[in-house]
Amino acid sequence: MKKRVNSLFVLALAGMLSFTSCKDNKEAENEPAEPMQHEMHQADTEMDHEGDMMDQSGGEMAMAEFSDENSSMMYQHYLEIKDALVATDAAAAKKAAGNMAGMMEEKNDISSIAENIASIDDVNKQRELFSELTAAMEPALKEAITSGKIYKQYCPMAFEGKGDYWYSNSDQIRNPYYGDKMLKCGRVEETIE
């Protein structure tokens, strides 16, 4: 009996810790919605005392530059897909993915995955494909970045606790795998420079 009570206690404690690790603060529920990062205008950003761009939530906005225009556009479309998934907007994700696939000069894994995202209306299936897109983008981003930063972020709760990554131009977490259900679940795992 004592062994069973101990087991139940350990399970309850583990459950509380996993939900607490990615639970949004109650204060966040009352915050106004923030604009998607790719739609920010100059008035939506400001400079901190060191000259870094800051987003409205106080996070650092990273401006990445790439060795070629194709890589720059690919990254911008990727951010548009991510932001659409953060907003749980399947139509916007579909459009951004179609734009990404259309601008690719040659057929590769990235363009194929973007085409698949663009062909699906189900946001949960788009999120699964976005995971594949993120994995395919990593070598391209690391090879092409010449200056600035890209934040590689991680959510341990994504895909039933398997966890997954995404890239962002802000150090603030805006989770594309859960949207407003777990908007701030995650952490910056790596900064690509």
UniProtKB/TrEMBL annotation:
UniProt cross-references to InterPro entries, sorted A to Z: DUF3347
Endpoints of the signal sequence: 1-23
Pfam family, one: DUF3347
Location of the DUF3347 domain: 75-143
Keywords for the protein's UniProt record, in alphabetical order: Signal
Annotated stretches, region: Disordered: 24-50
Lyase in keyword set: no
Superkingdom of this protein's organism: Bacteria
Biased segments, Basic and acidic residues type: 36-50
Protein name: DUF3347 domain-containing protein
Species of the source: Christiangramia oceanisediminis
